[in-house]
Amino acid sequence: MTTETYELIIVDTLTYAKARLAAEKGWKDAQLTLMLVNRTLGAMQDHPMECICGDCTTLMDNKATVPKAFVVFIPMFPRAGCEAVSCGVCEFCVDRPDLRERTVEALRKICPSATLMEPMGPVQ
Known about the structure:
This protein has 3 helices and 6 strands. By secondary structure, it is an alpha+beta fold. It has one domain. Helix 1 packs across helix 2. The protein is globular and about 35 Å long.
């Protein structure tokens, strides 16, 4: 079984604004993150999406119930069949202390072998 390694990014209003600035400067990761969030927002208009937390039944549709944040998983070493994932987080779950763990559980339902890239320390 092949393990897929992902980077997890939680995009709230402040992060989205920073990503826009970085994208305008040509940062490819920021451009990809914005594209994924915007695509998810558009898809929600046709098909409401459950919060990624897994135990929340809130449906978000980008009209009446707008997500307060997005969780974006970007494959670190993409290959055929390995895709990025973007899901909404509702206003009730956005401040959960276990949000990161819950989202990883949700990712593993899609890709059981998923692991997360650990953040690197400061460059010396």
